[in-house]
Amino acid sequence: MLRLFSGFSMTGLRARLLGVVLLAVVPLSIILIAYAGIQNSAEQERARAVVQRGLQSDIRAIQDLVSESRATLVTFGITYAIQAQRWDIVQGNSERLVVENPEYEVVAVSDPEGRVRASSLKRGVGVDISDEPLVRNAIASKRLVVSNLRADPLTGRPSIAVALPAYDDEGRLLAVQYIGFDPERFAGRLSSAGGASVETLVDGTGTLIARRPEVSEREARAARRSELVRSMLEGDRGEATVRGLDGVEREYVYAPVFGDPAGRMFLSVGYSPSQLLAQSDRTFRLILFGFTGFALLALAAAWLLGTYSIYRPALLLSRATERFSAGDLSARADLGSPRDEFGALERDFNEMATTLQEKVEELEATRTALGLLNAELEDRVRRRTSELEASVQELEAFSYSVSHDLRSPLRAIDGFSAALIEDYWDTLDEQGRDDLGRVRDNARRMGELIDSLLKLSRFSRQEMKLQDVDLSCIASDVAEFLQHADPERSVTFEIAPDVYGQGDPSLLRVVIDNLMSNAWKFTSKRPSATIEFGSREQDGQTVYFVKDDGAGFDMAYASKLFGAFQRVHGQAEFPGIGIGLATSARIVHRHGGRIWAEGEPEKGATFSFTLS
User: Fold this and answer.
1) Is 69 in contact with 104 (CB distance < 8 Å)?
2) Domains along the chain?
3) At 211, which helix (H) or strand (E)?
């Protein structure tokens, strides 16, 4: 609280007040503007959806025109007149179809060789239309086909025709019948033109069939070269922003009206986003300006209200904290606002100031007592250090005594026993010889025990130099030594490469040597054995292990493995004094790690350890 209000200037307080007001108003304005933007985007999507629906509606209208003519031709083709090839009757039927369907410009029927046998125009009978692509495509596909825009062979005028072949019950071609349309019939099906949209209908060659609003003859002739028509013919279906027939760039959506083999025809609807979305843009601007005005009014109102209700009491509180921070612990705030938040803040500040004043007085008293306690503690540390140094010296003296004072009598016992065996071998009976041999064996074993104790003590006191250690390299050296020492054994070593650990190289070599030598010993009764060294990740920590397939052990005795001189197997079965695992455990513990073993009788054992 002292840091919050001490050192406030009037300018600083007003700046913070403005920041608080902005924090209150700006997020709301951003949310409202974002909402307006989302609504605007939705309006734009709806407008584009309207264009897409208009495109699909007009495509269906053109398809309906063709579907209706197909129904007419199907019915016409199964009449008696065509099935019997009574061309005089067919002529009358053709004329009647045009009367009944004014949208048909011409109805004509040709024989299988392509010669016109009947025409609603009462002329053109006998004309050969076998070379007409419409006729050839209808015969080849055996279905209804739609032509590109071309000059009708009977009327000579621009026309789009639909043709359908007629067959008898045995599938023999009887006639090809077609209906010709004025292109304006297709143009009349376009309903979305005008306003912000334009519609363009072209055939499979890119020839303009209709355009709403209409364009000049020059622009119509150049339709095939326009960006729009090229996009329609290449893309088949999609969207593009290109220049239309009138050279104006718009956004177009286009799709095929018919696809092969019925005959290709494409329709596009183009629109100018600025015109199509003008209403939604105006709505967005109105919302934006309204929100901006609201934000400015709210900002001004909050500023005036905050100046009186926040700035003045904050300034008074700031002055009180300045006095308190300068060392006047008796300074207290008087804001005159007992019922609002600043009143609560005033009470909290005054309580805090009173508490701090009391704590400072307690702290001074505690500091004096702490000085006395620190002096006493330092004296205790000096005494404990002296006692520890004396203990270390006593341990070293004991080690020296064990090394020298105990070795001399052991050497004497071993030497005299050897002399007795050598000088009195012939006079001693078998029991005496055996007893002297036991004396020598125990003297040597006692010497090994003394050496092991000294080694264990030395490893416990040895200074450690931590660094990255290549444990794989150490394991390989130990394996090579063991194989060289007993080359007759069949043992396979599986040593994982690039296993590293952080520790003292010489001490870690002792650990790996003890564990691998242990595995070597307890696999000695196997005709062939495998010893593995490697590492694994366990609970986010690297675990190193030595695994063998030797004698193993009962897990009930696992707690005895790492104690000094503790053995699970008898001396006669596997020789040793039981100090290697204890040494390894002590070294691992000095590295901040832990060591454990898992095994099963006659199924091998695995010794695992960590380093930190």
Assistant:
1) yes
2) 78-185 (3.30.450.20), 190-276 (3.30.450.20), 406-461 (no CATH), 467-609 (3.30.565.10)
3) strand 208-212
Q: What is the mean pLDDT of residues 288-309?
A: 66
Q: What pLDDT was estimated at residue 7? A: 43
Q: What is the pLDDT of residues 33-72, one digit of tens each?
A: 666 667 667 666 777 787 888 888 888 888 888 889 889 8
SS (H, E, C) 429-455: CHHHHHHHHHHHHHHHHHHHHHHHHHH
Amino acid at 163: A
H or E element at residue 167? strand 158-167
- Cα(112)–Cα(130) distance, integer angstroms: 9
Contacts made by residues 386-394, CB under 8 angstroms, sequence distance 24+: 392/461
Q: Quick check: 493 pLDDT over 90?
A: yes
Residue 244 makes CB contacts below 8 A (sequence gap 6+) with: 198, 200, 226, 227, 228, 250, 252, 270
What is the pTM assigned to this prediction?
Answer: 0.44
The pLDDT of residue 179 is 94
Asked whether the predicted pLDDT for residue 10 surpasses 50, the reply is: no
Cα distance between residue 581 and residue 511, in whole Å:
8
Query: What's the rounded mean pLDDT across residues 392-412?
Result: 63
Long-range contacts formed by 170-175: CB under 8 A, 24+ apart: 173/112, 173/139, 174/77, 174/82, 174/83, 174/85, 174/112, 175/77, 175/82, 175/85, 175/90, 175/109, 175/110, 175/111, 175/112, 175/117
Q: What is the mean predicted confidence (pLDDT) over 358-368?
A: 80
What does the alpha-carbon distance between residue 106 and residue 72 come to, in Å, rounded to a whole number? 13
Q: Distance (Å, rounded) from C-alpha 333 to C-alpha 314?
A: 10
Computed over every residue of the chain, the mean pLDDT equals: 79
d(C-alpha 483, C-alpha 520), whole Å: 9
Q: How confident is residue 105, by pLDDT bands cut at 50, 70 and 90?
A: very high
How far, in whole angstroms, is CA 239 from its chain's centroid? 32
Q: What is the pLDDT of residue 607?
A: 94
Q: How far apart are the first and last CA of the chain?
A: 44
- Count Cα neighbours of 342 within 13 Å in the Cβ-side half-sphere: 18
pLDDT score for 224? 84
The pair of three-digit structure tokens given for residue 460, joined into one six-digit string: 């416990």
Residues recorded for the chain: 612
Q: Which of these ranges, 497-501, 529-533, 559-563, has the smallest mean pLDDT?
A: 559-563
> How far from chain centre, in Å, is Cα 567?
54
Percent of the chain with pLDDT over 90: 23
Interhelix angle 505-522/580-590, rounded to 10 degrees, is 150
- Whether omega before 213 lies within 30 degrees of 0, making that bond cis, reads yes
